[in-house]
Structure formats: structure tokens, C-alpha cells
Amino acid sequence: MTALVIAVDGPAASGKGTIAARLAAHYGLPHLDTGLLYRAVGLAVLDAGRDLDDAVAAEAAALSLDIVGLSDNPRLTERDAGEAASRVASHPGVRAALLKLQQDFAGQPGGAVLDGRDIGTVIAPDAAAKLYVTATPEVRAERRWKQLTARGQDIAFNDMLEDIRRRDERDSGRDSAPMVQADDAVLLDTTDLGIEAAFDAARRIVEAARVRAGI
Q1: Cα gap 139→136, rounded to integer Å
Q2: What is residue 201's three-state secondary structure?
Q3: Residues 153 and 132: beta-carbon distance below 8 Å
Q4: Strands (E), the chain
Q5: Residue 110's Cα: distance from chain center in Å?
Q6: Residue 3: CB partners within 8 Å, gap ≥ 6?
Q7: How far is CA 173 from the centre of its chain?
């Protein structure tokens, strides 16, 4: 039987991580939030006292990355980690260093669910199901603002919106593996969707892909 690999791409706070996690649970597949890898690299660079624009330092951090326990590190969900991730992800050496790790995860028997910004275009171009999850910058900024303020972080909404727009520009404009919708990915706009409605729409997209692939 063909492995069920589900690629979920999209910009920050679009809902792709929540959707990917729900899909993984629904289909009983392992899930990798690839954004955590880049967040961890960014924090490692900062903790070493190096500049995020230092490509050599960023690549070294990526090559020595230990992924054990990443999802349990609360620092990776903070605003600074997201900004750091977007900056180090612009270095081709960082993306190259993390490429095999992500592809090995996608190549597990039975399949896997991965979410990020270049899963359907670079990491798993042959994935059976591809989704590109998005929403307006204003809605995404509101989601992230509510998430961070609920954790006690002090940030103005307008600053959050500027962060979102800056990251979108950086992620889509980089030379190496830019954030773009794969030609065969299905667009899922979550602007006006709650979590349950977004997941149901995503599940139906995956089911249609399974039928096409005979999985």
C-alpha cells in the first residue's frame, strides 16, 4: 500500500499546525512541525551570542540540532523564537542541513504528516495529499496576538500584524525554498473557519487525495 504522506504548508498563524496535528491523530500518523526545527536553530544561535544573519553560525547550529524533546520546550512558542526561525530559515545552509532529517521523517513506512512552508514543494514533493493553509494577515495576527497575550506576553496588536507581514515577505521572498503553494496543493482559506470546520475541510481534502492515489 502506498504510504500516506500529508504535506501541510502555509504562513504563520494560518492554522496549519493545528490542522496537521488533528490530521495526524485522525489517521494515526506521526507528525512533525518543521517550524520547531527552525525555531530551535534560531534560539541556539541567539543562546550562543551570535547574529541571526550569520549564515555560518546558523548552519553550525542546524548541523548539531538535537530534536529530542523539541515539542516540550516552551521557549519555542515565544514571539522571539518565531522571528529567529524566519531569519535563520533564509540561509541555504540551514535548510540543507535540515533537509535529510525532514525527508527521513516523511519517508517512514505508512506515511507521516509534516507542516511547514516548503513541505509540498521541497521536502515531500510526491506527497499523496498537499494542503496550502492560509488566512488574511489581520486574522492571523489576531490569532497569534491572542495566543501570546494569553501566555502573559506583552505585545501590541499592530506590532504583531507587522511581525506577520514581515515574516510573510521574508519567507516568500527568500531564494532558497521560498514559501509558495505547490502546483498540486489544495488551497484552504481558514479566515472565516473555526477549528472544527477547518479540520473537517482538511480531512475532506485528504480523503479526496487518498481516492486519487488509491490509498
Answers
A1: 5
A2: helix
A3: no
A4: 4-9, 31-33, 111-116, 129-134, 186-189
A5: 21
A6: 107, 108, 109, 110, 111, 112, 128, 215
A7: 16
Q: Is 13 annotated as a binding residue?
A: yes
10 is in an annotated binding site: yes
At residue 1, the pLDDT reads: 56
Q: Do residues 12 and 162 lie in contact, with contact meaning Cβ atoms separated by under 8 Å?
A: no
Q: Is 14 annotated as a binding residue?
A: yes
The answer to whether the annotation marks 69 as part of a ligand binding site is: no
**β-strands 4-9, 129-134 pairing:** parallel
Give 10-residue mean pLDDT values along the chain (215 residues).
91 96 97 95 96 97 90 88 91 94 95 97 97 98 93 92 94 88 98 97 98 94
Q: What confidence score (pLDDT) does residue 205 get?
A: 98
**CA 180 – CA 197 distance, rounded (Å):** 24
**11 labelled binding-site residue:** yes
72 exposed, middle or buried (CB, 10 Å; 0-12, 13-18, 19+)? exposed
**Other CB atoms within 10 Å distance of the CB of residue 125:** 14
Fold of 4-213: Rossmann fold (3.40.50)
**DSSP letter at 68?**
T
